[in-house]
Structures are given as structure tokens and as C-alpha cells.
Design goal:
single chain; 820 residues; alpha+beta; Isoleucyl-tRNA Synthetase, domain 2; Isoleucyl-tRNA Synthetase, Domain 1; Ubiquitin-like (UB roll); four-stranded parallel β-sheet; 33 strands; RNA-binding
RNA sequence: GCCGAGGUGGCGGAAUUGGCCUACGCGUGCGACUCAAAAUCGCAUGGGGCUUUGCCCCUUGUGGGUUCGAAUCCCACCCUCGGCACCA
């Protein structure tokens, strides 16, 4: 009986390794297909279901591509720097390098046991000097190109631990370790100028074969908006002005006050002696709020008057200048003109603080409710000579007038901010610059890379980046003037590591350069990228940005790194919630793999869920796939018996059952191929089950001497090929029993015969007023007239055909609908 | 709060994108095989009702709308999930 087991996995994994079956052949680069799963972060020691879900099924897709003739490049590696290893070290004293490397060893073994086609010769580990050397190189390229700069920026500061906190270490405004209230503190940080690429990144999206919702998220994240910067001269401060960005210059005459972000530099200039105390207190209050809190629109508005005034650029009116935390320094100019009549937040604010709320826009059509605040477009009023203009004309006219007077101009603003890449942490790639008292910031010469991360470092939080305490690391000489200088104590965001790893895979051993451009241009872009939707914006945007920079610098000849993208869903716990230790609903793959073998587990993941949506784990389902593989195995053995007892002279009889089998055979090939192509693995497997059922049915219903053994052999052969990507070890084993030549993965993917899908009769529904009343069988080529006749003659239909037929709708191959 | 996705039988999930709701599988029931059970093979199976060879009504989170026809499109609401720039 059932033979497939863990031992079969081991047998074929050994054979594959011995024969180098999955080694990428560079000579066939013209047929290459670069199939990439997002590499894994070695935080836990073991693979979880999510890994199997991502890697196992992407491997199935890649195996199909191999069978279709592609030279598949399927590498794997580890995103090995990052916060969890450092936190673990703080708690346990185990060095991040040690814990990370141990985890990687375990995970690599487990990934091998999965039986995927990963070619480990191309492995990449981001925390190894051989890799981060080139991450540092990348930093230097951006620096030279003027795309890396230093600026002050607020960070989460825990006064208790004396350290910078990640957002996830802040709970309800307090530090997760010591409970102290977290403050926003300005620190000098390195940035990459991703905003310079905002329009390119936006434009590049259109062409990509990515999920529309992901593109939409990226577009929203970039948040391009066209508008104007308008200058409001400060009253009594000659030459100084507030610059405010607005998309609604047509509402300028409705601006009754201005609001600055509390951190805005002009606040000090504007604040009067009388208001000083209040302003300082409010700034302090704002520093305790996170950005997300500040942006919550439902929160009650807060703010204080600075005591200062600015002039309206067109009326000369004096406008109060306030500060409020709903205005962010990081967006636009950090200042807004408040138009309470036509903006929800300004309206709320003005009501609360009793500021005037004039109307300057009226709806154009009467039936629209334009009670204030009216945020729609319309016709300008109470706007001097601009009154009567439409919003869109008005915007142009107003900005034009301002421009003539030097008080404003058209501007495009982005929600996207520059990428903050420095981290005050140990476990990352050191930033390769030197701070020299004479020369300032000096890049480390490329030939001195890698700038190695020292091992002997005390990484418990001490108020600075851990590396700052390591004199051995910090002390250096200026590469330019040779005087004593200090190194930069910060490390790079791990997103920098992962924003170019796909470029390193194909040339991972290169010690001269990050990659050979000529080679990489042939290997990339990635043909299919698969990874979680949680990376829809940040990782995927950063990787696109870096690729474009390298394109502009002449290192690669493509602008987009990932041609096609699929997000796998999430497998939830049996209770329908996300698996987590705290919920205690974690399902570990190990026990299942041990009991059933890798293929049963992989096949269940393929069959039991929608790949893009994921779903709750269900124990019962895995039995079903076990049973299915057993059923296939019994059939393969049964076929061997039939073959050895092949009746000498008996000639095969054609029948309905034969036609049915042929239909399921070829329909199975067609649909399984189409569905697997677009990652619809569950329906692909369903078609294989149907083919298996049809083989059983044929076997039970047709007497042995009348069986078409050739037909059975061909259909079975194709079934095994279809199944191979999803149950690779099992399929090799069956292929061997079947008498096929090693390896099944060197065979050709089957093709369907359209002839076999033509049916002599098709069934369509007959509706009356849109309700199904009967079904009829018609020849596939029947004319509308014929269909109508057959349908009308049905007794069941006639019952409902009372009165005159007003209309008849025929959907070919589907239904006919009478409207009475 | 903002951006994005989702909600279909007892269960996992299908549905050619506006055209027979529930493919395939699980579970359940019945039958065959068996001394018996398991395994296996086959058949049936959305819910309710009736005058039960058959017929009628209802059904895709909730409520409304558009249409000959809606799981699919529109409006409002409820719930779940992903992201929100220092988790990766």
C-alpha cells in the first residue's frame, strides 16, 4: 500500500544533490527565468508555516516553469542584520553574530528538507562582510551622486534607557523596557534622497505586472499633489515670511489664520513675550505625541496662538499665526493657510478657537449641499476680482497673480519623505564615512571596504550608538588629511541591505565589484517576485529606488527590478486569528512534515487555500491530500498490473466513458496550467483530482479486455507531470515506478489537445425573467433561433411564459432568458 | 484616524469578471467489500416547506439601489486582516 514517506523525500533529495539537477546553467542564460521569493529574516530558529507557504509554493510555480523549458534561477539567502538579534543579545548576552549564524544553519537545513530547487551556490547572507562591503559601496555611490545627506530629524527617545527606540518598542507612548514616556528628539541622521525619484517611481509603476492594489498603495504613499507655495509676509519682521503649501489656491480669500507645525523654526521669531509660556508648553506637549496620534482626524484639535501675525498676500489683512500639532513639519512646508470654510480640520479648529469662518466657494449646481465646511469645487465668491471664476480657473489666476508679485508659485508636493537610513544600533552595516575636524564628512575610500563591524562591543543601551563606545572602531585617520578623525557610529537600516540583494544573487562570489554589470543585465530583471503584502510599500519602493539610482549611475541597464509580483496571503491559526505566541495558536510545520512528508504538506497548502488570500489552518484538510496522493499511487500500481496483463488481441472500445476521460485529461492539462501560471494552485490541484477520478471511473466501468491501455498510460503520464511541481519527491518516485527516465523534471510539460475539449452537446439554462426554470441540451453550434425553439418547447418553461415575450436574451454557451 | 484587501453551505474553498451560486476537497448519510472493523471503491448531500416519481420558496456579512439578470456594479453600515516611514 501507501509507500510515500519522509524516506522518499530523503531518497530524491540525495539524488537531486548528487546529480546537481538544480544547478543553474549560465550557458542557458537566454532561457533564464529569475524566480525570487523574498529572502528570510532568521529571527526564530525554525521555519514556520509562512515560509513553507511562500517558498514551497513559489518553488512549485518555478518547477512548472522548468518543465516548460526555462532555465530557472531560484536563489535563497538571509536578511541577517536587524533589531531582534540585538535585543536577544541584550537579554541573553549571546552575540548577534552567534545567534544569527546558528539560526541560519538550522533554517538552511530545513529549507533543504523542503525539497525546493534552491541553488545554494548563489546564497547571500547580508551580515557577512563579503556582502555588506557592497552595501557600504552602495552608500558611497549615493553619497557621491549627492543622494545621501545629513539632516536633523526627530526620533523616539527613551529618557529612561537613554536610547533611540524603534516604533515597535513604543507602547502607548511609553518605552516597552522601562515604561518611561517616550519623547521626540531631534538628532542628526543620514538620508537617501528618494524624493528626487518620486516622479520616476510613480511613472514606472504603470507598466509593471503587479497587483493593482499594491501599485495604488505605492501611488498613495508617494502622494503627489499639485498646488502652490504661497508666501505670507510676517507683520513687523521685514523680509521674513511664512511659506504655506496648498492645493486650493482658489480658497485663498477664505484664509483667516495660519498654522505652523509646533517645531517650525519661525515659531521662535513670531512668538510674543506674552504667549511664550503657552507656546513652550504646547511644543513640549506635541513632542510627546507620535505622528500617527497627531494625524488622527477624530482627535480633538489642539493648538495655541503665537501672538504673531502675517499679512494676507492679496488683501493685506493681518492673520493670526497659530501652532497646532495636526500640522507636520515633514509635509509640504510645515505651515498651512487655514481655510475653515472649506477644510474639515481647519473648520473644527476654527470652531473650537472661535476664529472667523467665511465662505469663498459656492457649489455650482443647486442640488449639491454646500453648507460649510464645503470641501468640493465650485465658483469663487467674496474673492475680489476673482469672484465668479471656477475653482480650477481661479487656482491658475490666483497663483499667476501671486507669481507676478513674487508671493508664490506653482509647486508639486509629495507625501513621500526622504529615506532615513541611519540607525543608532550595533547589528547592521557600519556607515562608511569619517568625521574629520578639518575636512568634515569624508567617505571611506572604496578600496578600504569592507569597514568591518567589530565583534567586541557592548551593545547595552548607553545613550549613544553602541559603536560609539568602541574606541578601537571609532579612532581612525582622515583619508584626506591624515589627521586623527572619528568614524560614524551609526549603522545602515536593514532595508538598505534588502534593497539590492537580488542584484547580488547571480554574482554572489564577486570580490572585485558588487556584480558584473554585463552579467547582471542578462540575468535581471527578476521575472517573478513573490513575497508578503506587508512589503507592498517600503521594501518594494526602496528596491525600485536603488535600482533606478544604479541605472542612472550606469551600473545596470534596467530601471525596474521586479517585472511581475505576487503577494501570498497569510495562513492564520485554527481559530482564524494571526498565529502568535501570545494567542497560543501556532501550528508548526515540523510535525506534519515528519508524519506525512514534505509533499503532503506542500500539496495541502496548495490545495486548501487561495494563495493570495491565505486562511485559517485546518487539520482535517491535510488528511485529504494524503489520501489523494495515496489514490494516485494506487492507480500507478494498478496501471502496472494492467500493463503486465495486457490483453493480447482485445481491441479498445470507445464509449462515453472514454470521451469523458479524454475531456478530464485535456481539460485538466489546460486548466491546471492556466491556473498554476497565475498562482491559483487550489483549482489547479482540483483539476488533477478530477483527472484521477476519471481514471478510476474508467477502470471500474470498462472491462479489462476493452480498456484502451495506451490512453490510460498517456493520461497517467501527464497526470504525474502535472502533479510533479506540487509533490516533487512523490512524482519522482511514481515516475520511476512508471518506468520514466530520471528526472521527471527533465521532461516536457504536457500540452492539451483542443479537439478533445469539444463536446457534442452542451447544457444551457433557460430563464424566465431572470429565474432559472429549466436546463436544455443543445448542439454547441445551435443558432439563436434554434435555441429559442428548443427552450420554448420545454413544458416547465411554458408554465411561466404567460403573456407576451417582450425580449429574449441569449448568452452563447450559457443561457437564454425570456422577459415577459 | 489614513491607505489597501476581504466577508459565499456544517468546514476549507470554486464561480470563465454582470449570465445555471457552491467546482474540487473535508465532514455526514447510504451501499459494496469484510465474520467484523479499519482502509478502499461507489452513490447521495446548501437551507426551509409541501399535496414528496415531483413541485414551490429562500440563500453569497447587514440594509437599500441599478439591471431582463448581481457573490460580482453603486450608496450606507458592521466585522476581520495588512501597512502607516526605527519590526522586517
Amino acid at each position: 500500500m501507501a509507500e510515500y514517506s519522509r524516506q522518499v523525500d530523503a531518497k530524491w533529495q540525495r539524488r537531486w544533490a548528487e546529480t546537481g539537477l538544480y544547478s543553474f546553467d549560465p550557458d542557458r542564460v537566454d532561457e533564464k527565468l529569475y524566480c525570487l521569493s523574498m529572502f528570510s529574516y532568521p529571527s526564530g530558529a525554525k521555519l514556520h508555516i509562512g515560509h513553507w507557504w511562500n517558498y514551497g509554493l513559489t518553488d512549485s510555480w518555478a518547477r512548472m516553469k522548468r518543465l516548460q523549458g526555462y532555465e530557472v534561477f531560484e536563489p535563497m539567502g538571509f536578511d541577517a542584520f536587524g533589531l531582534p538579534a540585538e535585543n536577544y543579545a541584550i537579554d541573553t548576552g549571546i552575540h548577534p553574530r552567534e545567534s544569527t549564524m546558528t539560526n541560519i544553519d538550522t533554517m538552511r537545513k530545513q529549507l533543504q528538507a523542503m525539497g525546493a530547487m534552491f541553488d545554494w551556490d548563489y546564497e547571500v547572507v547580508t551580515c557577512e562582510p563579503g556582502y555588506y562591503r557592497w552595501t557600504q559601496w552602495l552608500f558611497l555611490q549615493l553619497y557621491r551622486a549627492g543622494l545621501a545627506y545629513r539632516a536633523k530629524s526627530p526620533v523616539n527617545w527613551c529618557p529612561g534607557c537613554n536610547t533611540v527606540l524603534a516604533n515597535e518598542q513604543v507602547h502607548d507612548g511609553s518605552c516597552e523596557r522601562c515604561d518611561a514616556e517616550v519623547r521626540q528628539k531631534n538628532m542628526t541622521q543620514w538620508f537617501f534622497k528618494i524624493t528626487e525619484y518620486a516622479d520616476d517611481l510613480l511613472g514606472g509603476l504603470d507598466r509593471l505586472d503587479w497587483p493593482e492594489e499594491t501599485k495604488r498603495m505605492q501611488r498613495n504613499w508617494i502622494g503627489r499633489s499639485e498646488g502652490a507655495n504661497i508666501r505670507f509676509p510676517l507683520v513687523g519682521k521685514q523680509g521674513e515670511h511664512i511659506e504655506a503649501f496648498t492645493t486650493r489656491a482658489d480658497t485663498l480669500f477664505g484664509a483667516t489664520y495660519l498654522v505652523l507645525a509646533p517645531e517650525h523654526p519661525l515659531v521662535d521669531v513670531l512668538t510674543t513675550e506674552k504667549q511664550k509660556e503657552e507656546v513652550i508648553a504646547y511644543r513640549d506637549y506635541a513632542a510627546s505625541k507620535s505622528e500617527r496620534e497627531r494625524l488622527a482626524t477624530e482627535r480633538e484639535k489642539t493648538g495655541v496662538f503665537t501672538g504673531g501675525y502675517a499679512e494676507h498676500p492679496l488683501t493685506g489683512e493681518h492673520l493670526q499665526v497659530w501652532i497646532a500639532d495636526y500640522v507636520l513639519l515633514s509635509y509640504g512646508t510645515g505651515a498651512i493657510m487655514a481655510v475653515p470654510g472649506h477644510d474639515e480640520r481647519d473648520f473644527e479648529f476654527a470652531e473650537k478657537f472661535d476664529l472667523p469662518i467665511p465662505r469663498v466657494i459656492a457649489a455650482r449646481e443647486d442640488d449639491i449641499d454646500d453648507s460649510l465646511p464645503y470641501t468640493g469645487e465650485g465658483v469663487m465668491q467674496n474673492s475680489k476680482e476673482f469672484s465668479g471664476l471656477t475653482s480650477s480657473d481661479g487656482r491658475q489666476e490666483v497663483v499667476g497673480t501671486l507669481e507676478e508679485q513674487g508671493l508664490g508659485e506653482e509647486t508639486i508636493s509629495y507625501r513621500l519623505r526622504d529615506w532615513l537610513v541611519s540607525r543608532q544600533r550595533y547589528w547592521g552595516a557600519p556607515i562608511p564615512v569619517v568625521h574629520c575636524p578639518h575636512c568634515g564628512v569624508v567617505p571611506v575610500p572604496e578600496e578600504q571596504l569592507p569597514l568591518t563591524l567589530p565583534d567586541e562591543v557592548d551593545f547595552t543601551p548607553e545613550g549613544t550608538s553602541p559603536l560609539a563606545q568602541c574606541e578601537e572602531f571609532m579612532q581612525t585617520e582622515c583619508p584626506e588629511c591624515g589627521h586623527k578623525a572619528r568614524r560614524d557610529p551609526d549603522t545602515l537600516d536593514t532595508f538598505v541591505d534588502s534593497s539590492w540583494y537580488f542584484l547580488r544573487y547571480p554574482d554572489n562570489r564577486n570580490e572585485e565589484e558588487p556584480f558584473d554589470s554585463g552579467w547582471i543585465d542578462r540575468m535581471l530583471p527578476v521575472d517573478q517576485y513573490v513575497g508578503g503584502a506587508e512589503h507592498a510599500v517600503m521594501h518594494l519602493l526602496y528596491a525600485r529606488f536603488i535600482t533606478r539610482v544604479l541605472f542612472d549611475l550606469g551600473y545596470v541597464n534596467f530601471t525596474e527590478p521586479f517585472e511581475a509580483l505576487v503577494h501570498q496571503g497569510v495562513i492564520l491559526g485554527p481559530d482564524g486569528y494571526k498565529m502568535s505566541k501570545s494567542r497560543g495558536n501556532i501550528v508548526s510545520p515540523d510535525d506534519y512534515v515528519e508524519e506525512y512528508g514534505s509533499d503532503v504538506f506542500r500539496l495541502y497548502l496548495a490545495f486548501g487555500f487561495n494563495y493570495v488570500e491565505g486562511g485559517a489552518w485546518d487539520d482535517a484538510g491535510i488528511q485529504a491530500t494524503r489520501r489523494f496522493l495515496d489514490r494516485v499511487e494506487r492507480w500507478v500500481n494498478r496501471l502496472q498490473t494492467l500493463l503486465s496483463n495486457r490483453p493480447g488481441s482485445g481491441s479498445p472500445q470507445r464509449s462515453e466513458i472514454t470521451e469523458e476521460l479524454e475531456y478530464y485529461w485535456h481539460n485538466g492539462i489546460r486548466k491546471a496550467t492556466e491556473d498554476a501560471e497565475v498562482f491559483q494552485f487550489n483549482t489547479a490541484v482540483a483539476r488533477m483530482m478530477e483527472l484521477t477520478n476519471a481514471l478510476y471511473k474508467y477502470d471500474t466501468e470498462i472491462p479489462d479486455q476493452e480498456k484502451d491501455i495506451q490512453l490510460l498510460e498517456n493520461a497517467t503520464r501527464d497526470l504525474l507531470l502535472l502533479l510533479a511541481p506540487f509533490a516533487p519527491h512523490f512524482a519522482e518516485e511514481m515516475w520511476e515506478i512508471f518506468g520514466g527516465e530520471y528526472s521527471i523534471f527533465d521532461q516536457q510539460w504536457p500540452e492539451h489537445d483542443p479537439q478533445k475539449l469539444v463536446q457534442s452537446e452542451i447544457e444551457i439554462a433557460v430563464q424566465v425573467n431572470g429565474r432559472v426554470r429549466d436546463t436544455i441540451c443543445i448542439p454547441p453550434d445551435a443558432s439563436e433561433e434554434e435555441i429559442r425553439e428548443i427552450a420554448e418547447s420545454s413544458e416547465r418553461v411554458q408554465k411561466y411564459l404567460t403573456g407576451e415575450i417582450k425580449k429574449t436574451i441569449v448568452v452563447p454557451g450559457r443561457l437564454i432568458n425570456f422577459v415577459v
